Amino acid sequence: MCRLYGVTGGGYYAWKRRGCSKREAQDQRIVVKIRSIFEKSRETYGSPRVHQALRLQGVKVGEKRVERLMRVNGLRARSVKIYRRHPGQRRFYHNIENLKLGTLAKLPNQVWVGDVTYLRAGGRRRFLAVVMDRCSRKVIGWSVSNKRDVNLTLKALNQAVHQRRPCPGLLFHTDRGIEYAGFAFRERIAELGFVQSMNRPLRMNDNAHMESFFHSFKSDQYYGKKILSERELLKIIQSYIPFYNQERIHSGLGYLTPVQYEKNLC
Q1: Which of 208, 82, 214, 225 is nearest to 139 (CA)?
Q2: What is the mean pLDDT of the chain?
Q3: What fold characterizes domain 90-265?
Q4: What pTM was estimated for this model as a whole?
Q5: What does the alpha-carbon distance between residue 140 and residue 127 come to, in Å, rounded to a whole number?
Q6: How far is CA 40 from CA 45, 53, 191, 249, in A?
Q7: Is it the case that residue 82 has pLDDT exceeding 80?
Q8: For a surface tag, which of 41, 133, 136, 266 has the fewest beta carbons within 10 Å of its beta carbon?
Q9: For the chain, what are the domain ranges?
Q10: Rounded to whole angstroms, what are the CA distances from 32 to 11, 25, 26, 235?
Q11: Beta strand pairing call for 138-145 and 195-198
Q12: Residues 23-41: pLDDT tens digits?
């Protein structure tokens, strides 16, 4: 082998006695920290988030190095592509405009966003409705049902109202689903003194923050799992939302969690 690679036998044994280099030893220590952060994130963090988490711990390391070490050690975040189709009934929407466009939420309880996504548990359809504070991206209300109707979205809204006690004038933005355009839901919005806003036709990106949350939830905790019952699904959601609010850092929030971001605003 030494003749094949053009090295001397003495040189080979000297190389073996030297052991790993200072750089390699440092890499090994960094990998231990990377693996800890990766596992704590439930294997959801890619190299940019891991890099930011290391910086918060005081570890000085480049993003390219973190990316290389994660790739070499097989640490790859879960990721999926999600396509969602939104049914609509135009006669309910003619007087509900998109008022969120250009509206900046500088403080909590100025703009809330809501949406519904489809899930399966035990071979049956389930629907998850979520309400999020646009400013901090904190999930503040949610509900699960086997029906996609106004009762589902009202329960999530009322939970958010109970937790936050917002003042009238709050802007509540959703997609154009019938469960948000129903008269019972619109009456509740009016009763609270909220201003209702909806996506423009065929513009799913108008509610991008909710789409992003559902993408994160499904890629982090839902896809790749066989959920046998609604009870099991509820446990997954109940575990994930506190993790999302309190532990999962967000690039759009300067790599803070929603809870940390809100605390910094106080």
Answers
A1: 214
A2: 85
A3: Nucleotidyltransferase; domain 5 (3.30.420)
A4: 0.72
A5: 17
A6: 9, 11, 42, 12
A7: no
A8: 266
A9: 2-72, 90-265
A10: 31, 11, 10, 30
A11: unpaired
A12: 888 888 898 999 998 888 8
